[in-house]
Amino acid sequence: MALSRGRKARGERVDYWPGFVDALSTLLLAIMFLLSVFVLAQFILSQEITGKDTVLNRLNSQLNELTALLSLERSANQDLEDQIRTLTASLGDSKEEQSRLEALLARGAGAATSAEQRAEELEDTLDDQRKVTKRAMNQVSLLNQQISALRKQIAALEDALEASEIKDRESSTKIADLGKRLNVALAKRVQELNRYRSDFFGRLREILGNRDDIRVVGDRFVFQSEVLFPSGGANLNEEGLGEMTKLAKALIELGKEIPDEIEWVLRVDGHTDNIPLSGTGRYRDNWELSSGRATSVVKYLIEQGVPAKRLVAAGFGEFQPLDPEDSQQARDRNRRIELKLTEK
């Protein structure tokens, strides 16, 4: 049975697709996180640009007001100059009047100069704001390009993930189909082995005859321990050697008929009653005694020509009784050797 499980383990195939799908999903989540960060950054820059545009509009409005004011100042200056020329023409060379008019002219010129300076400062500020806005627009453009590239990568990953899922579904379908075929093959093997087991039991019945101390229980051929071994011992007695010689011949003949692809074995199980051993003999407890008896049977069958790879020995002590009653008759039944033809 352990060999059967080992053979099945060799048939298993490691499936890397679930791990690949998990890695792609993790990468997709990371990319979506970066995309969210870029979108948030774009929103913040857009808000900042909107604020800059508001300031720029306000500065443009102030510049327009100063331009209008400068225009008014220039117009007033022009009026003053006209008045000066008119007064000069009308009053002649009056120095006092001329001084007064020159002061008025100087004050008008100063106001015009101040307005021009303020207009220049506003123009410089507007230039700075335009530069900031241009840099922000460049950053937005770069972010848009990066977002576009990320979207392309996400689309490629989604395509790869979809292809992986399709391949995984196809693999699952193939595995399910192989499982069905394997179950059919195993069922066929079991049927074949059951047929050979029936033939084997039939031959043993013919060889050993109808004896009360040798019987079939379920799918096992059962020998009472007294037929094969002395009390408390594990060496085959004369009668046991004779019975095992017959068994070896039947196994060898059966082995010639069973196809090579059927990995069959004969399992020899040793069982004792529930009376503890004294511990002073060769065997300390019923575990060792049951294992020793099963091993003796296997070794003798090998000596008679049965292939060693077709034999298995196991000891169960008193822990799998046929009769759970605490009586001498039950203990006699429980001391036994069981033979089971099975598959590895």
Can you give a write-up of this model?
- The chain has 344 residues and is an alpha+beta fold.
- The protein folds into two domains: 13-180, Helix Hairpins (Orthogonal Bundle); 210-343, 60s Ribosomal Protein L30, Chain: A, CATH 3.30.1330.
- Helix content is 72%, strand content 9%.
- It has helices at residues 2-11, 17-91, 95-208, 225-228, 238-257, 286-303, 328-334, and strands spanning 214-217, 220-224, 264-271, 311-315, 336-343.
- Strands 1-2-5-3-4 form a five-stranded mixed beta sheet.
- The chain is rod-shaped.
- The N and C termini lie close together (5 Å).
- The model is unreliable at 1-10 (pLDDT under 50).
Which terms would index this structure?
344 residues, alpha+beta, Helix Hairpins, 60s Ribosomal Protein L30, Chain: A, 2 domains, 5-stranded mixed beta sheet, 7 helices, 72% helix, 9% strand, disordered N terminus
Q: In the CATH classification, which architecture of the largest domain applies?
A: Orthogonal Bundle
Q: What's the CATH topology name of the largest domain?
A: Helix Hairpins
Strand content: 5-15%
So what's the CATH class of the largest domain? Answer: Mainly Alpha
Count of all domains: 2
Task: Please list the strands of the largest sheet in the order they lie side by side.
Answer: 1-2-5-3-4
Strand/helix succession: HHHEEHHEHEHE
Q: Percent range for helical residues?
A: over 70%
Uncertain regions spanning at least 5 consecutive residues: 1-10
Output the number of helix runs: 7
The coarse silhouette is rod-shaped
Helix-strand category: alpha+beta
Sheet having the most strands: 5 strands, mixed
Number of strands: 5
Distance between the terminal alpha carbons, to the nearest Å? 5 Å
Radius of gyration equals: 54 Å
Mean pLDDT: 79
